[in-house]
Amino acid sequence: MENQLNPDNLPNNLPNLPTRRRFITITSGFIGSLILGDRALGATKPVAKKPVVKKPVVKKPVVKKPVAKATSTPAPSASPSASPSASASPTPPPNTAPDAPVIGKASATGATGATIAFTAPAKNGGAPITSFIATSNPGGIKVTLPQSDSGTFTFAGLTGGTAYTFTVVAVNSVGTSSASAASNEIKTLDVVPASAIAIKKSGVALTLADIEVGKTISATNSATNTNLFVARLGEDSFKGYPTSCTHQGGPLAIQGKTLDCPWHGSKFDAQSGAVTTGPAGSPLTPIKVAALNGALYII
Ligand code: FES
């Protein structure tokens, strides 16, 4: 300190003041420096760093926004000039004839009658069905049912003993359907003539089941109660023969495939009645036999 106040120790670069005045000036400056410290000399005070306090991060709860459902909004008309009729319902197709009916079971009900069941088609073509028509084959006999639902035809006037099939069509205001499939085949009952004579065996009507094709059996004429031979030549082919020899009337008997006469040894073919062994010179005279409704008759 003492050294600092010595005017001789003053720096040489002070302004050129009288020595006493420079001393005062220096001294005042020194004292000022003591009072004001470094601030008087323009020193900067170090800035105290504030501790960094990290604020806790508060997580905001995630709130899911409700997803808005897409709603269909009718698109505006592509063309403002489109006419209102553009969105109208399409024109329905024109009506047509019905679909074909479904054929059912056909049954014979006698010598001249039959019934045929059918089912109405699922599609009537857009117009109500007004009737169904069944047709016989053969004969082309037609029967009409004026109705719209399934049903059964009743035929009359068929020919006895004849095989038939039937088809059915449906009719509406537009037209007629295609024909159904053909029915099962039926056979009307045979008409038994009043003059027909039943053939019996052991007192019972002789039937097809009693005689095989190619066989000949002995039977009885129910009208005269006399015997005869009945030969089955085919499924629906029959012949009858008398039981007397054409030579002199001896009694014939079935011996395998021949009808033999014990008197003089003549033999006849059991199916055709032809002489196979003499002395008989004439074949047996055939008797007309037919199967009617499964039974055998002399006709
Ligand atoms: S009567 Fe039959 S062979 Fe003479």
From TrEMBL:
State whether keyword Metal-binding applies.
Answer: yes
Keywords, in A-Z order:
2Fe-2S, Iron, Iron-sulfur, Metal-binding
- Low complexity bias located where? 68-89
Q: Which SMART domains match?
A: FN3
Q: Please indicate if the UniProt record lists Heme as a keyword.
A: no
Q: Where is this region: Disordered?
A: 65-105
Q: Which GO terms describe its molecular function?
A: 2 iron, 2 sulfur cluster binding; metal ion binding
Q: Which residues form the Rieske domain?
A: 203-298
Domain Fibronectin type-III, by residue range, is 97-191
Quote the protein name from its UniProt record: Unannotated protein
Q: Which organism is it from?
A: freshwater metagenome
